[in-house]
Structure formats: structure tokens, C-alpha cells
Amino acid sequence: MLNFTIKTPTEVVFGRGIEEKIGERIKEYGAHRVLVHFGGASARSSGLLDRVEHSLFDAGLSFVELGGVSPNPKISLVRKGVALCRREGLDFVLAVGGGSVIDSAKAIAMGAATGRDPWEFASTGTRPDKTLPVATVLTLAASGSETSNSCVLTNEETKEKRGITSETNRPVISFLNPENTFTVSKFQTGCGIVDIMMHTLERYLTPEGGESDLTDRIAEGLLIAVRDAGRRAIADPRDYEARATLMWAGSVSHNDYTGCGRKRLFPVHKLEHELSAFRDEIAHGAGLSVLFPAWAEHEMPYDYPRFAQFANRVLGVEMDFEHPERTAREGIRTLRRFFEEIGMPTHLSQLGIKPENYEKLAANTVRTVNGPVKSYSPLDEKAIIEIYRLAE
């Protein structure tokens, strides 16, 4: 097990009926004038936004709204949010939505506090040294952004998608009511299931970490729980316990607990970001469900026992101790079938990605990370194209 430092300071308020507490609780974190940041009309039509704003009003807090966040959140809206915060003297950002809304809120908060364009942090790899406090009201179990130290932005002008990782990104408090995910579509539920699993799998299947049995067992337990709850939520969207498992798993999967003692590289996320930057309509979870099995096929020869352990412990594939490669390969086939079972794509053609796009996408990926993508083997342009072909 590698040395590690873990800091997960976000307070989580979990369960039914918690919206009425939002105003009084964020006031304890210094809120006076609040930016309420959200996505589309569903936040209003569901009644959630009204409940949140009534809570703010009852706590004596003033607020300004900024809606319009889209999937793969855009730097252009972030810049509008930064200007609004500075013009109105706002001192707190409250995100009401899923991962895209929360990521956008984090970027607005860092821009308003530092006076710098958040895309500077995304494009240069530098980290903000301060931010406005952020709180979240989660409506989609997926990204884990409600407790994580990361956010991802898209520059629609340059068609680039970049992440910003900094401890200043962690929200101070997050409100998680599983009932707020009851109306999430089956497709978006499936995308969330994949994203949650990938946040743990990209920590679990990594070449650096050595023996880490406790961390492994935590990761494996989460993956099993998400698989089982995911099936139930797809079958019955109003299954509270299934939705609760997915919502809590989303937070735990990306707040670093499932990777303690292992070094996260996230190669599949880096590959996927180029897909959804290239075609904005590609949902992040859908890109991951296509690319992960292909990446695993390409990389498992470097560590068959590790991939076989995943297949056996998580997916129930019988272990072939003499030929672990057989177990490993059957595990990836089983995982691909699970993705298909919950309605997720597993082929690039389903995303509208064609063979003539491969070279450009591979070149963009390598350029974005300033060299080959770190994985079990260095993924240069040739290797990335091989992965695309495995995903056809």
C-alpha cells in the first residue's frame, strides 16, 4: 500500500425532507448573499427549486438565480456566473442539480474568489488557492462532485474538455435526498451507474498500489452494491432504498475512500473526455460504458491476476487459477453484458464516432495530457486507436 493523505471535509446531510434545513445550515457556513445555480426547467417544475428558495428566505438569506447549465458544463456560462457574483457581491454558491451543475458552481466560486478566469486553471493545470464556499442539493447520483475535489469544464469554442483538481473544490456541505432522483430517466440512471462504478474501477485497476486488501474490499463492496441497486432502480425508479444506495455510493466512490493506498491515473476518463468534447451530445457515462471494456481488453495482459480478482470477487466469475487470463476476459464480457442490460451503449458506432474520427481524437487526447496517457502501458496515439478498434 502506498503512502496516502485523505481529507474529505464535506458535511453530508442525507435523507428525506432535508430541503427545509438548507437555509439555516448554509448560514452556519457564512452565507449571506447566495448564487442559486441550476440547470433547466425541471428544477422549477419539480418544486425542488421553490422548496430550496423558501428555505433560504426563511433563514433571512438573499439570493440571485443563474440557470442554464447543460451537460458537459460550459466555460461561457461559468464566466457569466463569475461576473454576476462579483457584480452582486455574492458570497456563497448553492448548486441545485447533478454533476454538471455542481462542477459549474465550483468553477464560478473559484473565479469569483480569485479574480481569474477558471479556464486558466483548467488549461494550465494550476490550482486555485481560494474559493467561495459551495453547497449542493443533489438531483442525480453519478459524478460524486458533491463531495469530490474535482470539476470538469468544456470550452465550446476550442472543443476542449479539461478538469481542475484542488482541495478548494470540495463543497462545505451537501444535501442528499434520494427522492430527488425518482424522476431521473432510465438512460440517465444508467449513465450514473456507470460513472459511479468507473470512479472506483479506475482506482482499483491501476498499476501502482501493491497490496491493499482493505481498500480492495471497500471498493468491491461498493461495486457489488451499485450493480444490484442499479438493476432495482432501472426496474423501479421510485425504489427509495435502491436510489439511496446509488446516491451514497456516488459520493463515496469519488471522495477517495475507494482508492486509499493506490495511485489514481484515470486513463479511461481521459479518453472519454475527448469523445464528449468532440460530440457534446455524448453523455459522460455512455462514453465510459463504451471505452472501459475496450481499455480493459487492451491493458489486462499487464496484470491478469488483478483483472481476474475483479471478475471473481465482484462479478462472480469462477476463478481459473491456472489461467487467470480466462477469468479476466470473462469478467470484462460479463461487465459489458451488464452495461447492455441497463441500456448503456458498448460500441463507438452507437455514439456516432466513426473510424475516420479516430486519428484526430487520439491526437487530441495525447495533446491534452501532454504526452501518452498514463495507464498500465503508456497510451500513445497508436495504442488509443487500438482501443477504439476494440470498442467498435
TrEMBL record:
Residues 193-389 form the Fe-containing alcohol dehydrogenase-like C-terminal domain. Keywords: Oxidoreductase. Residues 9-178 form the Alcohol dehydrogenase iron-type/glycerol dehydrogenase GldA domain. InterPro entries: ADH_Fe/GldA, ADH_Fe_C, BDH-like. Coiled coil: none annotated. The keyword Oxidoreductase applies. Pfam families: ADH_Fe_C, Fe-ADH. This is Iron-containing alcohol dehydrogenase. It comes from Agathobaculum hominis.
